Amino acid sequence: RKESSAASDVYKRQKYVNRLDLLAYDKYGSSRLWWIIALRNIDTIKDPSRDVTAGLEIYLPSKNTAETLAG
């Protein structure tokens, strides 16, 4: 099992195949924040359009963290 490096991160098994935009919309209310999920999982997701598979285990930053990063 992966260990989170940030206390606010949530560990989640990916159910969206190649659609970080849909996951970002569900988690943060904006599909435009998909890049935050990709950045947090840079060791796992090299190509966001191909590397996001069903069952992929990733970390999701908290909504507050995502909003802070987005500016």
Short description:
With about 70 residues, the protein is of the alpha+beta class. It has helices at about 20-30, 35-40, 65-70; strands at about 10-15, 55-60.
List unreliable stretches of 5+ residues: none
- Termini separation (Å)? 31 Å
The gross shape turns out to be: globular
Describe the sheet with the most strands: 2 strands, antiparallel
Helix content: 25-40%
The total strand number stands at 2
The whole-number mean of residue pLDDT values reads: 85
Following the backbone from N to C, one meets helices and strands in this order, namely EHHEH
Structural summary, described in words:
- Helix 1 crosses helix 2.
- The chain has helices at residues 20-28, 34-40, 63-70; strands spanning 10-13, 57-60.
- The protein is of the alpha+beta class and 71 residues long.
- The N and C termini lie far apart (31 Å).
- It is built from three helices and two strands.
- It has a two-stranded antiparallel ribbon with strand order 1-2.
- The mean pLDDT is 85.
SSE topology sketch:
Blueprint: E1 10-13, H1 20-28, H2 34-40, E2 57-60, H3 63-70
Antiparallel strand pairs: 1-2
Helix pairs in contact: 1-2
What structural keywords apply?
71 residues, alpha+beta, two-stranded antiparallel sheet, 2 strands, globular
